[in-house]
Amino acid sequence: MSEEIEDIFDPKHSHHITSAYSGTKESIYNEIVKEKQLFPSMFHFFSLGLVYGILHNKKSDKPKTGDIIYLSRISNEKIKDVINICYMILNDGRKQSEIISEMMEYADGGIEALYEIWGKNKSFQLPMLIEESKSIWKERVKELYNINFEDN
Amino acid sequence: MIIKNVEIKNWGRYPSVDIPLEVDKGRNVVLIRARNNNGKTTLFYALKWALFGERGLAGHGKQTEAISWINRQAAAEGDGEMFVELILEIGGRDYRLQRKQKFYQTNTGDDILADGGEALEIFDQENGETVADAGDTPRKKQNWIHQKIIPERVSQFFFFDGEDIKRYMDKPEGEIIEAIVSILGIKTLQNATNDVKDIQKIFTEDHRRKVNKSTKDEKLKAESQANQDKIEEKNAKLAISIREQEAKKERKKDITEKLSKNAASEEKINERTRVQELIEHQKKGLEKNKTSLKEHRGDSSVMLLNGLMELIDRTEETPSSKDQWSSKTASYMIKKKYDRCVCDNHIDDKVLGILQKKVLQLKPTPQAQLKRFVESTFGRTNPDVMLTELNHTMNERNRITNEMEMNQTVVNKINEELKGFGKEMITILREKEEKIEKEIEESIKEIQSDTEELDNLKNEQYILTRKLETGLPQEEIDEAARLKQFNEDIRDAFNISINNFYEQRKPILEKHISDIFLKLINNPKLYKGLEISNTWQIFVRYYDGKLLPSDQYGPSAGASQIVATAFIAGLNEFSSKTAPVVIDTPLGRLDDIHRENILKYYNKMSKSQVIILYTPAEISKDNLLLVEDKVKHHYEIISVDGKPDLSRLVNYEDVNI
Predict the structure, then answer these.
(1) Does residue B388 belong to any structural domain of this protein?
(2) How many helices (H) and strands (E) does chain B have?
(3) Is residue B144 domain-resident?
(4) Does chain A have fewer CB atoms within 10 Å around its N or its C terminus?
(5) Count: domains in chain B
(6) Contacts B298 to A, Cβ<8 Å
(7) How far is the C-alpha of B652 from the C-alpha of B621, rounded, in Å?
(8) Whole-model pTM above 0.90?
(9) Which of A51, A140, A146 is closest, CB to CB, to B301?
């Protein structure tokens, strides 16, 4: 990672990822990740919820009482890249903690929507979601920060 | 026999009703329609009671006593009489058969009791007098009905509930076997054979008495008596041994049949094992696929973000790369204090001013940072490849799952075919077969030995009898021998007739019921037909040769009814009796196609008359067209106006136009 970029994964920040949908046996995270073992870990599912939430502009302000992970403890580079990009496109100059807090709202919004899809289809329909996302991003990108459209 | 008319008074829902039922050869069907609980079954049991008394009510289950059928309104009015009267045409002559039951109200008025027993009268319609040969006791009159019309036990094949006939498909019990044997006339032959046997015993006993009387040699008489006792004892023992041997042979036949099915099943068992191993292998593959899919799903956020990353990647940097290059070059030239430009011009203050203007503040902007970060991310990961791998893994999962399902279907099908069979079962059956074979061998030896002993005893008895006969005139001895021979000849003739039936007539009956079955069933290509065992169990033979006992054949309740109907129709065709067929709820369990098939066939169920009691749900108006040219009368049972618990009959057309 470029040293010019703010390192949100630095342990000194102690950013703690939490969710309204984790922390209990009955929670969505527990069901999808622990019981059904559909994702390698909770932060994988978190990152999917985060991107889906930003893509569809879905946020949830429900109290985030359940632990997921400290950002500094995420070891997977691909997921770190995703979180970094999400951080950058939301970065409008606010404090890191505020942006990360907004990221958690997006993640919970995404998780809610994804769980609804799961409930209906017993599948996240990932290939379809990914295929559809390309055209949605084209519209959504106009509302996000730090993307240069001037010469685009 | 034809029922020309039925008159009912105070029976069940009927206060009084008179129903003409006469049919002719071209139109032999009477249809009677009624909604449920309107009196259809009540009429059915009125006919059975008239013919067979309370024995005819046994099939109802609840109202098995005549008193329970008394009309409530009549009962409320006090003492009275309930009767059912039939006008019957038997052999071209009309008879009036009336069965009645008087009743009275108790003093308290809250109960109705029978006043005496049932009364049965049979009149000759031509002269109005009672039929003399019917006798003067209820028992004799009932016997007259059994002989002239139909025996009660046989009536189950003429009066039946369409929904209940499936029971003929189950392993027939003694009562049903008796009825079948009766209906086909075999019973008469069997009875005659036994009668001849009894006559022979009487002759033999009579002759022995005469012989004993004619001799004074007490020692010889005692010896002959002792020998005769031994013969009877041996005969009894032999009869038991033969019965036991027959039972063992039947058991062995069953086991052999099961074993042959098992032998054919061994191949299927091997096939099942092979497919099961394949399923196990596929399960492992699916487990691996699950792990792989989990990993791919873990990358799904990258794939979902890819659309945005591609957009960012396509953006230009600000300032443009050309301006940035110019800035860096100018900055370098100023820093190194170049006095000549690359174009060889001297760098004076004016040019230096231009160069200084080219120098930009190149601190990275957030936009540039994002673009560069995305570029570096694309250097580390390729979301398009990830998506291809995800799709591939998911397709692989679907493929494995489908194949597993198909293989499981194969296993289930084999399991269904192998129901109750397995390698362990083969071993058990083989052991059983060997054991029973040994038992049969032993019993054969025992019977042989007993038969030899019996022959010896009979020879001794013959010699003893000859010795004892010395006091008798030769004519009497000759007469006894002639009678004995005559009896034996008659018995042989009956036995030959019975054997002939099983050897010659039964295959014809089988073909007949098979033909009917194939006409009635909606997918005849699936079957070869029906077969009947010597114990009168029905088997269904499939097109591929597979044979299933009918109690195990049962794709649906309707299919079972088709088999039973074919069987009953075949029996009636073969019957030595000609009687009406009365069917209650004829089509209840059948689907549309079978309804049409069976409805078109019902008029052939009896050579004389078919009375069908049906509900509106069973026969639609369209389906009525299938039989209308065979229908002589069509009635509808309806409630009496203002009295929903009473019924009357009207012409169908009067209420259905």
Answers:
(1) yes
(2) 18, 14
(3) no
(4) C
(5) 1
(6) 39-41, 44, 76, 79
(7) 12
(8) no
(9) A51
